[in-house]
Write a structure and sequence with these properties.
Layout: H1 3-21, E1 26-27, E2 33-34, H2 40-48, H3 57-63, E3 68-79, E4 82-93, E5 97-101, H4 108-116, E6 120-128, E7 131-132, H5 138-145, E8 147-150, H6 162-173, H7 176-189, H8 191-194, H9 206-219, E9 224-228, H10 236-251, E10 256-260, H11 264-270, E11 273-278, E12 281-287, H12 288-293, H13 295-301
Parallel strand pairs: 5-10, 5-11, 8-9, 9-10
Antiparallel strand pairs: 1-2, 3-4, 3-6, 6-7, 11-12
Helix pairs in contact: 6-7, 6-9, 7-9, 9-10
């Protein structure tokens, strides 16, 4: 066989092997797999078609057991002059949990940012337990309405000890005198942190840092927890631990939790309510369990 024939034969083998792999299993939006490769644009386009039958205010109220503790009413919000949320509505009852899912750029984190005061509000309102908090600053929302925001990642102070990080929660709320007592309650509850109270936060594992971030928010004694991507960057065993902690905070301590979670299966399995956001609007709202069973949601966001 000539050198040219050898190259042609080798190329055919490579092409054959490559063609066998096209269209095979790839990672989905959350966890699991899909058999057909879908681009981000395809997911967004198909998700947008869901918006034709967006949920009514009455439907949102039903999911909140007709007793909303936190409501967002016809909110238009964004950054600078750019509007991200369009006539957005949300309702959640006291002690409930709600998970926001959707394609990248749908406005999920913008909802949390708007509640806490990190966006420009063009119109609409945000009300917590009868108090209009729309125009309050983040510190005022924490002090007056008990809203705490747990950031995505890397919000601990690595050079400070675990205990000092917890005490920062008290300073953020403007009540340092109460912080020490609250920190001791955290240590009583979570031995993993108590054993490391005098260690620099920088030596903690990823899961332990996430626990510290959640615990620092608890020192602020909030009523509402805004949780942005609780599982991001964590190993599976730590993801389970974090969701167990959040479940404990909701079920035993009565915290109201609104979260954004890229791992859609995990988030919906945890939450009482799920919203699917598309282009700054709610396309679907239902119980977390029902969204897990929804074939369209499964195909686009749950990996088949």
């Amino acid at each position: 066989m000539s050198e040219k024939q050898k190259k042609i034969s080798s190329t055919k083998k490579i092409n054959k092997n490559t063609s066998n792999k096209v269209g095979k299993v790839v990672s989905g939006y959350g966890e699991g797999s899909v058999d057909v490769v879908m681009s981000v644009d395809q997911v967004a386009k198909e998700a947008a078609s869901m918006s034709a039958s967006a949920p009514t205010i009455s439907a949102l109220s039903d999911l909140a057991s007709d007793k909303p503790f936190l409501t967002i009413n016809s909110l238009r919000a964004g950054y600078g002059k750019m509007e991200i949320l369009h006539d957005f509505n949300l309702q959640i009852g006291k002690g409930q949990s709600l998970c926001l899912i959707g394609p990248n750029g749908a406005g999920k984190s913008t909802v949390l940012h708007s509640i806490f005061g990190f966006t420009n509000i063009f119109s609409g309102s945000i009300v917590v337990d009868g108090l209009d908090v729309t125009s309050l600053t983040p510190s005022q929302k924490l002090s007056n309405a008990g809203i705490a925001y747990i950031l995505q990642d890397k919000s601990v102070f690595p050079q400070m000890t675990v205990e000092e990080n917890l005490l920062m929660g008290g300073f953020l709320k403007g009540r340092p005198a109460e912080a020490k007592q609250a920190a001791e309650m955290v240590f009583d509850k979570y031995k993993r942190l108590a054993d490391r109270r005098d260690k620099p936060a920088g030596v903690l594992s990823g899961g332990e840092r996430r626990l510290l971030e959640i615990s620092r928010a608890l020192v602020m004694q909030p009523e509402v927890l805004l949780v942005d991507e609780p599982s991001i960057g964590l190993e599976p065993r730590f993801i389970d631990m974090v969701f167990e902690i959040l479940d404990d905070l909701q079920k035993k301590d009565g915290k109201t939790i609104i979260m954004v979670e890229q791992n859609a299966k995990k988030g919906l399995a945890f939450a009482d309510i799920g919203y699917v956001l598309v282009s700054g609007e709610t396309a679907i709202a239902d119980t977390g369990d029902n969204l897990l069973k929804n074939p369209d949601v499964g195909r686009l966001f749950l990996g088949g």
